[in-house]
Amino acid sequence: MDNVSEAEDFQAVGIKCRDALIALGKQYRDADWVGQIAEPPKAADFKGWGGIYAERLSEGRQRSYLKAIVDKTWDLTVGLQHDSNATPDDADLVLEATGHLISTLTRLVRRHDQDQPARCPQCESYRLVDDIQDDDEGEGFYESVVCSACGWRSERAFTSWKEHFTPERVERIANYLAGPGL
User: Fold this and answer.
1) Cβ–Cβ < 8 Å for 142, 157
2) Which whole number is the average pLDDT over 58-76?
3) What residues does each domain of the chain span?
4) What distance in Å separates the CA atoms of residue 102 and residue 116, rounded to the nearest whole number?
5) 5, 55, 141, 182: least CB-packed within 10 angstroms?
6) Residue 83 to residue 168: CA distance in whole angstroms
7) Mind listing the pLDDT tens digit for each residue in 1-19?
8) Cα–Cα distance between 15 and 67 in angstroms, integer?
């Protein structure tokens, strides 16, 4: 976009965005969460793959939203590539829509792949933090989880320094410290 000035250049932005969406569709088609598909869409059928991803990764209004932006973003990219009167604003809109769709789908994949965030058993807040305290004898530390919203605290668990600093862990730390660093 930084070095374009003619309608053909803006059309090329649409082609690149379309190619990015096709690549995104191909990226996840073999993911475990997709499951078995009786009649899988063709490799370049982003709308088909995007609809499947929406079904597998979301529900309710999120699903409706994801399906809508899959459909509308694809239409924008294809429309731009064929628009002989394309302008910089048209290309910017398609770039932003494509980026938003990629970001949204990636966020939903990440949410699926990660465990749901822990919640406080007392007030259901997500504001849980680890609390680590040394023991008085210097033999190890106590660890618990504290809710920043209501003050609830889990049972404290003791870990000795010997258990914590296994030979493998000490070796990893030593290798890290001996390396070039960041």
Assistant:
1) yes
2) 97
3) 7-113, 128-178
4) 21
5) 182
6) 61
7) 677 788 899 999 999 999 9
8) 21
